[in-house]
Every structure is written in structure tokens, then in C-alpha cells.
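Appendix B, example 12.
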Amino acid sequence: MLKQILADMYIDPELLAELSEEQKQILFFKMREEQIRKWKEREAKYEQNEPQKPIKTNKVSQRSVHWQLGADDDVWVWVMGEHPSDKPYDVICDEIIAEQARKQAEKEAEVRRSAQEEELSKLTEVLAVKSEAETRDRWKHNVENKNVAEVKAAEEMKINVENEIQSAALRSQEKEIVKLEERTQEIYMNWKDAQEVKQKIEKEDSEWQETLRKSKAADERRRSMAKQARDDYKRLSMQAIERGSVVDKAKNFGDVKRPPLPPKPRLNQSTNSHCGISRSERRQGVKRLNSSCSRDNIIKWYKEEQLPLQAGWDSSRTSIALWFHGIISRLDSEDLLKNHIPGSFLLRVSERIQGYVLSYRHAEGYMHFLIDASGTSYSFLGVDQLQHATLADLVDYHKTEPITSLGKELLLYPCGQRKNSCDYSELIS
């Protein structure tokens, strides 16, 4: 099973759904190691065929970049806002917005003040010239006519002109105040809109932070489960060595070994020639091939490879075990186990790949464990990986030893066939 998955670099989604978290973790590591191995093999082949480029000896033209190091001899990096004396990001943004608004208001007020002063200056000059001319004429007339009344009228006119100038200045100041208030109100509304946008961004940022926190927690749980799986493997391996049951039984079937690695892929000489392959073609990777394990192929595999080994027989090798079932689906296995108590189990032939699946009934539902049968022994895919000579040995071993330390799954009660039916008849006929 593992050999076929690594050869195709593909696993059916429904088959993947039957794996536990520990099995998925180890299967991912195995597939990743296989990808790296194939990539290194292609790179080495390409390096052998690629002509060596001359090494430049001109050291004067070489350039390099030197990073400033900190006290820990690592690249010195400063992130704004992380130092205790740095202001928070929102405070800095508020200060920048307020300063820009203040400078803009002062600039506009200064421009309007300059224009008004220029207008007042021109008006004052006009009125002064006009008043001076009129006063001069009247003064001449008064001097000529020696009329005191006209001199008094000229003085009153001068006073009126001064009052008019003062009134014009007051009206100009009032208009300036009104415009300044309107500009202040506009700036305040802009600031209010900016605050609403800022609150919206902070809300979205808090939601993103919560999502990130949950993602980190999920990653931590997966790492913990993977570590627990490795610890279980070491513990169960030591128990098996101490008990000696697995090794003694495996002597009749050869040394206990892991399933062999899939054969190395053959490189096409026409496409991997010295001048015919490009770097982009080298990095395309291995194309995924669809699995060809149909029901007929699985039946043929069982009859040719597993039936001679009496896979599915009990420990005495005289009859088929009660827990053995044929090619049934995941839903069918759960339907068989639903009326049984926790601790019940059955072992079925996978309908999607050359291997077996152990379906287990526990207090909260069902669990499914893939069993690798690609070599001369049998083992769970990614759980303990202890290799057993027969399926019966695997079942007997886990009657007293749990499959995983977290679930404490013990194979206590085998689940047999339905009444008046036999789902493995097509395999042994």
C-alpha cells in the first residue's frame, strides 16, 4: 500500500479521510521525503550532463553586502512599535493626521489674511486719497471764504471716513471668523470619518488575530499529536523487543524489515540529454498518476499474493477469522459496528488500494486505520509501524497493546458477518 502511494504520489481523497491524524502526518513526511529524493536524483543527473561554466577570477569586480549585526551576532532589525519607548501605531497616526490638519488650516488662514490685508490696504489708500483731495478742496474753499462751518463739516467727513474704514475692517474680520469656523467643522468631520475607518480596520485586525491564534493552536496540536505518535512508536518498539513475540513469529517469514522503497524512476534519455533539457523543465516535478486499483485488480491482488499467505485466517490457520471481511466500504463497516459495544472491530480489504483497513468502534464513534501489506509483513500505516508476520498476529498483539496511547484502542470484540451473508466469498472462491 505505501509502496503504491509513493510510486503514484497520489492518495484517493476518500481513502485519505479514513486516516487518523497520526497516519496523515507520517504519510505526508514519507511523500515529502520521496519528492526530495527524486528531486536530488534529477539534479544530480542534470549536473552530470550540464557543462561546467568557467570560474571568474576577477575578484575586483565582485560585490558583496554586509549586514549590521546586533549584540546576538544576528542581523540587526528594528520593527516600529516593538520598543518600549516607541509610540503605538494608532497614536502616531492620530498625531500625524492632527498635525497635517492644523498646518493646512493655518496655511489657508494665512492666505486669506494676506488677501484681506491687501484689500484693506488698497481701500485705505483710495479712501485716504479721496479724503485728502476733498479735504484739501474744502480747506481751500474755507480759506478763501473764511467759512468756519465748512471747516467743521470737513472734519466731520473725515471722522465719517474713519468710521467707514473701521466698519469695513470689522465686517472683514467677521467673514474671516465664519470661514474659519466652517473650515474647522470640515476638518472635524474628516477626522471623524478617519476615526470610523480606523475602528473598522481595528475590528478586522482583531478578527484576523483571532483567526491566526486559532491556526497557531491547531498547528501546535498537530505537532503535539505527531510527537505523541513518535513516542508511541518508540515505546511499542521497546515493548515488542522485550516481549520477543513479534520477532519470534517473524522468523518463520524472514527478517522483519520495512517495506522496500519504490523503484527509482527512469529518465528519458531523449529529453534529459546534454543540450535538450531546460531548467524550467527540470523543475516541473513528477506528474501525478491516477491510481489504477479497481475492484477487479484488488481481487486479483488478493488471490495471487495474499491468499497463498492465508491472509485473514485465525492464528491456528484452520479457518477464516471471525473479524475478517471482504471488500466493503467505510459506511458498510460502520453499519456493521453500530450495534456493537465499544472495543468491537473488524478488518476489511480496502476498496481503493491494495491493503487492509481496521475499523474500530469506540465510545464516541468510529476509527479507521490503514494496514500496509506491500511487503512480506503487516503493519499500521503511521501508528506504531511494528511489522507482524500475519494479520492474525497483528490482531492478537493489539488485544493487549493499544493502537495509540491517546485513544487506548484495544481489539476486544471481533465483529462477524451479517446473518445469511458472506462478504468475502468473491476473494476465496
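The longest strand covers residues 365-372. The chain has eleven helices and six strands.
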